[in-house]
């Protein structure tokens, strides 16, 4: 991670487009903000757009703006994020989810420094720096024909790959201490030290959700801790299970007992799941799996799509289909509820 920060410092003051890659939750947006605050544009706007969270038919207007009467409901001119970010930095989060037509329009904006509002007849000049992020392999997306090669070259002048948390275990305890202080202050409770057994468990955990998952776990631990320090019992997974990890010697006795109990139930669970699917169509099984996964992720679309192994666009289309048929869709949780679940 030290090497990544050194490279970020080296390129921050340039005008080059930067592509930040890495797994979900590693802190790509935090890195983008770091680049902006260390750039020559630091006193100008930093505008972020999540390309995966906005439907394709709305993303064009969101990015480029529209003229009055450009489409039904366009009762007034509206500037887009490109114009909002003029003079500053525009972050295109999860750029891989942008459709091919908008990719072409984005390429022109980057190359010519002008944009076309939806329904507009006159190009609008813009002066911005582009930072893009993706948790997908864009070179593979190019090979599959879902991402433009010329756009990748324009975006990927400098690539900052953020390592997963499991690749940098030495950072875990430092980050955990930081989050404890942050959320102790936010919740008006005294900061507690993290116990030695708890630290060993934190380092032993794989953290599939990376820094976001660790931050969420320590927020929860601050609220649940009862003693003079945060012990391992206060550190819980999003579903409420204890974080059972050992230190250098492997799993703790409690973890071994817990895992043995889980293993003893696995066959029964698998058999029950199989029986529950008998008699259902493939579409019905898919719907059940998608909605159950979304509920498990507390409505977080990005996390659910990652677990399901599909793009967030595919997930969004499926959810729209289910909603149109009258099926209730789990909404993303926030506030106090989110403190006990996955971070959004």
UniProtKB/TrEMBL annotation:
Entry keyword annotation includes Chaperone: no
Superkingdom of the source species: Bacteria
GO terms classed as biological process: phosphorelay signal transduction system; regulation of DNA-templated transcription
Pfam families the record matches: AAA_lid_14 (PF25601), HTH_8 (PF02954), Sigma54_activat (PF00158)
Molecular function terms from GO: ATP binding; sequence-specific DNA binding
Residue ranges occupied by any Sigma-54 factor interaction domain in the UniProt entry: 1-223
Keywords from the UniProt entry: Activator, ATP-binding, DNA-binding, Nucleotide-binding, Transcription, Transcription regulation, Two-component regulatory system
PANTHER family referenced in this protein's UniProt entry, alphabetically: TRANSCRIPTIONAL REGULATORY PROTEIN, TRANSCRIPTIONAL REGULATORY PROTEIN FLGR
Protein's name according to its UniProt entry: Transcriptional regulatory protein ZraR
Record organism: Brevundimonas diminuta
